[in-house]
Structure formats: structure tokens, C-alpha cells
Amino acid sequence: MSLRVMDAMLPRLAEEFSLTLGSAASVITVFAVAYGMAQLVFGPLGDRFGKYRVVALGCLACALTTLVCALAPSFSLLLLARTMAGATAASIIPLSMAWIGDFIAYEFRQPVLARFLIGQILGLSGGVALGGFAADHLDWRTPFFLIALVFFLIAVWLLLLNRRLPPQARQRHQSEGSAMVRMVSEFGQVLALPWARVILLTVFAEGAFLYGSFAFMVSHLHQLHTLSLSTAGQVVMLYGLGGLLFAFAAPALVRRMGEVGLCKWGGILVALAFLVVALAKTWWWSVPACFIAGLGFYMLHNTLQINATQMAPERRGSAVAAFASCFFIGQSMGIAINGQLIAIVGTTGIIVLGAIGVWLVSWNFVRLMRKKRI
């Protein structure tokens, strides 16, 4: 929610601070960069001090940094606050995934991760919808106050719950020596694995092509089809509902299609849906397209996630952190590049490029998976 709340508010920010749409998109880019880079710290911290505990404290830190976003008096200070918010948010999803990987056997893990995705999906959809509503009817600062309150309440709940967990669920790994040396060593061990490098490069490209385009989708519907930002946000919110369908149908889809089939058809669905959004002459084609894009993305991304939890089991915290880092650094690069391209190709061209890129990423990963299994 914290990441995606700014998508629908880009035109409003551009107007309020006298910026281009590409420059306003920096509020998303800096969040994603900080989120991705901070993974390199939180992965080893989770292994050292206990993943669940670090997630709980991370939520408390997010409440503070999100509040700073709400109070920022200028765009430059908003960028700084969003950087802090991205860094603190980095502790939550990857360490939660790694915690699941520690306690759920591999053969049961994909359906569990799919259910875990429900929280992410609701946050993504809620962030886009809240941002669109705020852009039309509220002050742009209001969503940050609400999100800060949510983070604070969740932090208190998790810290209380952490005390009641069995000892094995609060496990930490004792180690000696310099924390920096351990961190470099652990990530070095992950990167030394050929298949881990394939997964990390794949998720980097996925983030660049998919979310590099997705961040401008509300603006595309607003500018091309003259929809209000709140209505455009509600249309794009259907992306999350497509993800919910995958979360509930994941066990059946995994049995029927397998990992190769999920990646193959996930990439095809995203590409077709993005092309419809980009090229349709009327806005209502975007309603089913956004839904299908969400379904396709989670078919592809959930398969990458399940591989990430197993690419270095003895360094799972660091491995999943590296996965998330590549995903969000890819997003930031995609948004930054598209922010420059938008003046040349427009939002239509950016979404078309995203469609082609996601299809190529999924096709290549399917090819490599099949080669690995021979």
C-alpha cells in the first residue's frame, strides 16, 4: 500500500509542485531503490536476530517514516521521506517469505505463499484506490496519515504475538565476527549459485518491464480517456482482484499447469492485457485487461518466489532478500527510464514496451527451466 499509493497521485503531485509527470514519478523510484538496497541489510539481520522480530520492529519504523512523508513541506523533502519509508518497508515482505520457507515444506509452500500474497494484493489494490480517491477528493497527505496508523497498529500486534510464538518460530542464528563481513559472505554464497543468478536476473527484468509500465497506468487512463483519477485508480485496482483469483486457485493451478505452465501463461496473459490497456480505443476494455494482468503477474511472480525460497536454503533470509532487492531495483530502474521516455513515446508506448518485455522475460525463464530439468 505504501509503495503503490503514489501511482494515482502522480498527476496531482505534478500539478501541485509544477513538475512533469516523469519528475513526479521520482516519489515511486526513490522508494523502490531504497527498498531494494535495504534488503541487503535486512536479510542477514533477520537470520541473525530472528525474522519475525525484525518484521515487527520494521513495521514500527514504517509508521514513523510514513508519518514523515505526511509532514513533508516540499517535494525535495518528500523524496527524502519516501526514501526512508522504502528503506524501512524493506524488512517486511521478504523476511516474511523467508520465515514461511523455514517452516513450510517445499511441496506445500507454493499454496501457502499464494495465500500470503493476499495481504500484498489487498495492499497493492488498496494503495492505488486510496491514492486515486485522495487525488480527487482529499489532500495528498491524508493517505500517509492513514497508512502510518495501520503500520503502528500492526507493529503492536506483531510484537505482542511474537512473545507467544514457540521458540523454534523465533529462532535466530548465532554467529561471530564482523556483521559486514558476514553479510558480504552470505550474499556471495547466494550469488555463487548459477541458478540463483538466473532467478535474480529474471526478477530484476520482470520488475523493470512490468512495474516500470504499471506505475503510469492510472495516468494513462486519466490522460488518454479523461477518466477521473479516482475512477482510473478503481479500474487499475482490478489488477489486485486478478491476483486474488490466483491466490485462491493456486493449489489447482499448480497441480494442473506446474511451474513451467504458470510462467509461460502468466507472461502471455500480462503481455496481452497490457497491449489491450495501451491500444484500446475505449477505457472499459481496461477493466477485464487489468484483472487478467493481475492474474498473469502472480502466476509468473509466485513461481519465481517459490524458486527463490529454495535457491539457497541454508541462507534463505539472505537469498530471499537478494530476490526482493533485485525485484525492486528493477522496478526503480524501469520507472526512471520510462519517466524519461514518456515525453517521446507517451504512456501508450511505455505500456507496449512493458508488454513485450514481460513476455520475453517469461519466455526466457521457461526456456531455462526446461533446460535445467533435462
Write the layout of secondary structure elements.
Blueprint: H1 10-16, H2 21-24, H3 26-49, H4 51-71, H5 75-89, H6 93-103, H7 106-137, H8 142-162, H9 179-191, H10 194-214, H11 217-225, H12 229-279, H13 286-308, H14 316-373
Helix pairs in contact: 3-4, 3-5, 3-9, 3-14, 4-5, 4-6, 4-8, 6-7, 6-14, 7-12, 7-13, 10-13, 10-14, 11-12, 12-13, 12-14
Q: Termini separation (Å)? A: 41 Å
Q: Could you list the spans in which at least 5 consecutive residues all have pLDDT below 50? A: none
Report the oligomer: single chain
Estimate what percentage of residues fall within beta strands. Answer: under 5%
Number of strands: 0
The CATH superfamily is known as: MFS general substrate transporter like domains
Helix content: over 70%
What is the radius of gyration computed over CA atoms, rounded to a whole number of angstroms?
20 Å
Q: How does the major sheet shape up? A: none
Helices and strands: which structural class? mainly alpha
CATH architecture: Up-down Bundle
- Principal-axes geometry comes out as globular
Q: What's the CATH class, please?
A: Mainly Alpha
Q: What's the SSE pattern?
A: HHHHHHHHHHHHHH
Mean pLDDT: 84
Describe this structure in words.
Helices cover 83% and strands 0% of the residues. The chain is mainly α. It has a single domain (4-162, 180-373), classed as Growth Hormone, Chain: A (Up-down Bundle), CATH 1.20.1250.
Give a short summary of the structure.
This protein is mainly α. The protein has helices at residues 10-16, 21-24, 26-49, 51-71, 75-89, 93-103, 106-137, 142-162, 179-191, 194-214, 217-225, 229-279, 286-308, 316-373.
